[in-house]
Specification:
The chain is α+β, with helices and mostly antiparallel strands and 106 residues long. It contains 3 helices and 5 strands; from the N terminus they run αβαβββαβ.
Length: 106
């Protein structure tokens, strides 16, 4: 059990950039609500959120689902312990209002 304690002290916080494509049916106020929920989810997993950049609603160049032809884009920089990233991204990807999420190292 010593090893586990040792390992936990070395959990490293990393910086990421999240590009979110939100499924808000083109409503900007819907995007604000989703962004608030997403930032809360990041904080709940022990992370810190940077300055959110909201982009506009853009039509998709490739439409995969005929019901969703455009999305509201937002960039959310955040810091989280590397070990938490997978569970956080899968939790966010499960949300119906998050159409797509691309996370890159900041």
């Amino acid at each position: 059990s010593n090893i586990i304690t040792e390992h936990n002290t070395h959990r490293s916080v990393k910086s990421y950039q999240g590009l979110f494509i939100l499924n808000t049916a083109g409503k900007a106020e819907g995007a604000d609500a989703v962004i608030a929920d997403v930032t809360q989810a990041i904080v709940e997993s022990g992370g810190k959120v940077g300055e959110v950049q909201k982009h506009d609603n853009r039509p998709f160049s490739r439409v995969v689902d005929k019901k969703i032809t455009s999305g509201f884009y937002a960039t959310i920089p955040f810091e989280v312990v590397k070990e938490e990233l997978d569970s956080l991204t899968s939790k966010l990807n499960e949300r119906p209002d998050v159409h797509r999420l691309l996370v890159t190292n900041a």
